[in-house]
């Protein structure tokens, strides 16, 4: 019986789907990140890998695991995968698009509102015993009604964020993306701008692009300096898209007003990171898609994909469709 390695505990239904399809499942249950050497060792004797978490799938890994017939990621982001290497080894790789878009956009929205009202810091101030009387001039945040939201990356998640902001706060939507989205322009009255124009005109910038060589470090001091002093920076995409040292300076010297991060670089963030003690910053531990419903859907999607790969069928959510074309 062929075996599938699952690198984290996932839902029983998803595991049952793999087992009921005729495969043995081994679940790695230790609560720590896995080194590549450990993963290579664990993959021995397995035909399928359902990869949960930031496992690096590169030339070294794929050369060391020639028995793998497919890899299903339980994430939409695939920045840890070297697709050229996967194509070279003819390994199909799948991800979990769409099912997590709403939950992740909710997290971006939650951060936007929390930063605008300093919510996390206010919570901590109660714990510190600082809530002693009602002061009408203290703890003042910003309103979002009618303000301008700049979306970098109007893909699946960016579009959900734009819809929420338009519906809930009638925000003006501006965006920068690889391609224009005429439907969003029509339905949300969204305006397409250059990256620099987006920075200059946004009250909130929300990042939803994939992490690539092009977007790595895109938000540095030069970018923050182009933003408005009242601007809020939200990143739920990947931590490496912003330069953390530059972000800290921009927040400390008032170049921008606040920041909300669901993603950091590295992850986990060091508990002594100065960003955690700033009034104008909210940080979450990469919980973008972390609802029971969404994680269940992601697990089922990943399970369906790995079963397809082992059966020799096309993975429904394959990222590197080229592997099928070259067969
Ligand atoms: N925080 C979380 O838990 C969480 C959850 C899901 C996804 N994510 C991140 O969100 C990202 C986006 O997910 P998605 O499903 O919306 O992906 P998507 O592919 O639908 O959207 C990404 C958009 O960014 C655009 N883009 C990419 N590079 C660009 C560039 N250099 N300039 C302009 N536009 C560019 C693309 O054209 C696309 O429209 C994922 O890659 C992942 O890193 C994070
Ligand atoms: O890309 C994703 O789906 C999330 O960030 C989880 O890795």
TrEMBL record:
* An example Gene Ontology molecular-function term: oxidoreductase activity
- List residues of the D-isomer specific 2-hydroxyacid dehydrogenase catalytic domain: 4-320
InterPro entries annotated for this entry? D-isomer_2-hydroxyacid_DH, D-isomer_2_OHA_DH_cat_dom, D-isomer_DH_CS1, D-isomer_DH_NAD-bd, NAD(P)-bd_dom_sf
Q: What class of enzyme is it?
A: oxidoreductase
Q: What is this protein called?
A: 2-hydroxyacid dehydrogenase
User: Which controlled-vocabulary keywords does the entry list?
Assistant: Oxidoreductase
Which family is this protein grouped under?
Answer: Belongs to the D-isomer specific 2-hydroxyacid dehydrogenase family.
Species in which this protein is naturally found: Pedobacter ureilyticus
Top-rank taxon: Bacteria
Indicate yes or no for the key word Oxidoreductase: yes
